[in-house]
Amino acid sequence: MKQGELRPDLHPRQSPYGDFIYPVFSRRSKGLSLGINLNLDQHCSFNCRYCQVERRTPPPPGPKPEAALILAEVRRFFTQPHDLSQQPVKDLALAGDGEPTEAACLPELLLGLLDLKKELALGPLPILLYTNGTGLDWKRLGPSLTRLTQEEGEIWFKLDFWDEVSYHAINQGKMSYDHLLARLIEVGTKVPVVLQACLFAGEHAFGPPQWNQWIQLMRQLLHRGVKIQRLLAYTLARPPADSNCKPLSDTTLTQIAEQLTSALPFEVLIYGAP
Ligand code: SF4
User: Fold this and answer.
1) Ligand 1 center to residue 48 CA distance, Å?
2) CA dist., res. 189 & res. 225, Å (int)
3) Residues whose CB falls within 8 Å of the CB of residue 85, separated by 6 or more in sequence, listed in order
4) Which of 162, 174, 183, 155 is nearest to 48 (CA)?
5) Which residues of 184-195 are buried (b: 16+ CB within 10 A; e: fewer)?
6) Where are the domains of the chain?
């Protein structure tokens, strides 16, 4: 894979480096991010209208995610020469084609990645856990999330709805709205979380009245003790599942950022279309 093939509008999951790992150019990381895909079957507990996972062609059959297999791929990527060896890696991102917290191996994998990072002296190298929250069960993941957030890692929790109706309309998750928010509150009061949101134009999109409702929801979370580190809001970079969803202009994104920044006590970062 050549450096020129890394573009924010292309995030192929198949790579020459393994079944689970895939290098991408990430807008949010401002450079090379090594993705880890725990959902080779593309299963997800949400069905977001804006989802940019390429589901038009069925994925090739792949192995079941196991911590040992994935750690071996990450180790090879950092220890053996290849086309991207000279490129600095900005972060390790557990993202991929579905919801990483649904994978049974996640706690073992997180701890294994933190150990590997130390063993190979890879730091500073944040490990980012992207999540829609459905599998974010503190009983199962508490020790690994605690260590993750103590060692540069971050939990990027999806919050791009402003109430129960919008959650079902946009994210189409099967978990109840109350249960999902309870998950966020349970985890976010124990360890810091970063909120992430995909903003788009079209049906079901955020408009100025919804920005206010969204701000109110985030304020309620702060009031409940959720430790929100910052908010990352981005618009579409690749074709979405629902073609009615369109990227937002930089002008609109800037307006949203200004309103959010003046209303919320944490940092708001916005990422426009490439
Ligand atoms: S949670 Fe992520 S992978 Fe799942 S449907 Fe939504 S955007 Fe796609």
Assistant:
1) 5
2) 5
3) none
4) 174
5) bebbbebbebbb
6) 3-271
Q: What is the residue-averaged pLDDT of the chain?
A: 92
DSSP summary character for residue 20: S
> Domain 3-271 is classified in which CATH homologous superfamily?
Aldolase class I (3.20.20.70)
Question: Helices H, strands E: what count in the chain?
Answer: 7, 8
Model pLDDT, residue 29: 80
Task: Decide if 93 contacts 20 (C-beta within 8 A).
Answer: no
pLDDT > 90: what percent of the chain? 78
Pairing outcome for strands 267-271 and 193-198: unpaired
Map tokens 């129960």 to a residue: 164
For ligand 1, whether the C-beta of 188 sits within 6 Å is no
| φ, ψ for residue 239, nearest 5 deg | -60, 130
Q: What is the rounded distance in angstroms from the CA atom of residue 118 to the CA atom of residue 124? A: 10
Q: Within 10 Å of residue 254's Cβ, how many Cβ atoms?
A: 13
Residue 227 Cα to ligand 1 midpoint, Å, equals 23
pLDDT at residue 227 in the model = 98
Summarize pLDDT for 53-73 with one digit per residue, the tens: 988 888 888 899 999 999 999
pLDDT of residue 11: 61
